[in-house]
Structure formats: C-alpha cells, structure tokens
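Curious: why this fold?
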Amino acid sequence: MGGFNFDQMVSRSHLRASGWGLSAWTQSNPFDTHCFYLCDYRADGQPLLVTVTQSSFDDLPPTPFSADQLSAAVLKFSAKMRRQPGSASLANKTALALSLYAKKTRSYKAWVDTDPSDHAGRLHMVLNLYPDGPESGGIVRPFVAACDHTILNAAEVVQASVYVRKYDVQVGLCPFPGDCPVVAP
C-alpha cells in the first residue's frame, strides 16, 4: 500500500482547480516551481504544462548550446510528450531542455530585468510551437505571462496563446497560417 504523498495531493488540487490534469504535474509542488506552457500548433494547439523546481532552474550552469539547438530539443521533446504523456523520464528531459532554452531567450531576460529583486518569483513562460514546413521541426515562440498565480488557468493559457498567434500570423512569424490551427479559447 502506497504512502501519503502531500506534494502530489496539493498539486492535484491546484492543477484540477486550474483546468489541468494530474499528468501535468512533473516536479515538486506548485509553490516552488517555474511553469512552462506549451501550445503546439503543429498538433492541436492545446496546452501542455511542464514544471521545473525553481532551485533546479536557478542552479543550471550556462550551456554551450545555442538557442536554435535548444529550440530543436524543445520541439522534439514536446512532440514526444504528446505521444507518451505519463513518462517521468521524458518530462524531466523536456523540463531540462525548456529551462536551458528559456535562459537563452529575450523574453526571460526581459522578465529578469523587469525587477531583478523579484527574480526569485515564479516564471510562467508560454511557448507557441509553430509548424515551419516539412523540413523543419518548427518554430518556438516564447513569451512570459506576468502574474502572481501559482499555476495559470488552462483556458487563460489558450486565450493568451491564441492572441499571440493571431499577432504572429499578422507579422509573418507563423509562416504557414493555414497550418497553425485556431484553437477555441
């Protein structure tokens, strides 16, 4: 008989209240994590939540990999997570790729520069994953959601993602607008 897992019980409550399933819980409890929300427009655009402990994120040493190399890893692991949603090993690899990638983005740097004293706050990064033709894995479009929630509501993530997607189609970032499905908020 399994023991009582407080972190899992607290996480389950917060995830359920925010419109997520327990499979979205990947690391620790919701109070000491950074959250990544993947909206994959190469698939159905529905959000996927990946969490990483703040200490794991903060303790990562600089990486020699470029943002392009790390975005390729994010695209690869996010596609695998959709096919294998319960894999803890895959969730950990995805969390590592997301953490390394995030630190290379202007969105993250702007978030840190906004209030360096609040750098210890919770990062909520949404990543729109766009198709980019048959030869490429896609395009990663990150943005930070500025809020003090423990976990963003799944419907709010979709709404923000759709808003940014519409903007990206207008400015030409999503190169195949017909291939970027519109997701109902």
